[in-house]
Specification:
Order of helices and strands: EEEEEEEEE
Number of domains: 2
InterPro entries: Ig-like_fold (IPR013783)
Oligomer: single chain
Radius of gyration: 19 Å
Shape: elongated
Length: 102
């Protein structure tokens, strides 16, 4: 049985979501200032959650949306991307025409 579930992002919620598969549920994070908040999921109607003392807290990080100022074709199969709000270690990809590069 699939219950109507919802997510909570810090103090915001419950936020409705959708079942993608029997073992996968998706919520879209509402707008929020950049910071790390607690995340949890529960049954939507009365928003009850199951608390297990052995579970670790789940954190969600809001970040500033990156912005592009310049994209330059290097004529060697690569591009140079200049902008703000990029974070080291995060996956960045470019979709150039029909080619998806990582």
């Amino acid at each position: 049985e699939m219950h109507e579930m919802a997510c909570r992002f810090g103090t915001i919620g419950p936020v409705s979501g959708e079942w993608i598969a029997q073992d996968e549920f998706r919520c879209i994070a509402p707008a929020h200032a950049p910071e790390v908040v607690l995340f949890d999921i529960g049954i939507e109607n009365d928003y009850q959650t199951y608390d297990d003392p052995n579970d670790r807290e789940v954190l969600y990080e809001y970040v500033v949306t990156p912005s592009l100022t310049t994209v330059t074709d290097n004529n060697d199969g690569t591009v140079t991307v200049i902008g703000a709000g990029f974070h080291p270690g995060e996956k960045v990809y470019c979709n150039l025409g029909n080619n998806l590069g990582f």
